[in-house]
């Protein structure tokens, strides 16, 4: 891809989907850990559903 070429609509959409996927993969486990730590600090026991 040359430096002068602009991305088309498909390339932009594909890049947005890729960025959202990577963001979800990174942020979700961190959010779960944060929530569990907050619950632990409040004295709430975590019970994993069967």
From TrEMBL:
One of its GO terms (cellular component) is mitochondrial inner membrane. Solcar repeats lie at residues 7-50. InterPro entries: MCP_dom_sf, MCP_transmembrane, Mtm1-like. PANTHER family: FI19922P1-RELATED. GO terms for biological process: mitochondrial transmembrane transport. Keywords: Membrane, Mitochondrion, Mitochondrion inner membrane, Repeat, Transmembrane, Transmembrane helix, Transport. It is found in: Mitochondrion inner membrane. This is Uncharacterized protein. It is a multi-pass membrane protein. The keyword Ribonucleoprotein does not apply. Belongs to the mitochondrial carrier (TC 2.A.29) family. Its main location: mitochondrion.
